[in-house]
Structure formats: structure tokens, C-alpha cells
Amino acid sequence: MYTIDLGYAAIYAGLFALFCWWLVAELKDKFYASGYWKGRYDGWNLHRRMIDNKNKTDEVFDYDKDK
Fold it and tell me: How many beta carbons lie within 10 A of that of residue 25, not counting itself?
């Protein structure tokens, strides 16, 4: 009787370990993807701010515009 119970316990422990492994893998992929896209978003915002700043300074120091 105890052997059958230990067999079921081993099967359930294996299924539980498999489920935990799958859950960690899914969460890792989700967090990696969200961090990846957040980094892309921050990079594009930095690029946009740099270009806007360059355009503003080019307007201020455009000496050929008055000629």
C-alpha cells in the first residue's frame, strides 16, 4: 500500500516540478520581452529628444537665414 502511495507522490512531485519549470520559463520570457520593449521605447525617446534639441539649436544659430 505504501509503495503505491509513494509512486503517486513521485508522479505528482514530477508534475509539480514540471509545472514550476514551465511557469518560471513563461514569466522569464514575459519579463525579458517587456524589458526589451521598454528599453527600445527609452532609446527612441532619447533619440527624439536629441533630434528635437539639435533642430532647436540649428534654428537659433542659423546665421544664413537672415541673409
Answer: 10
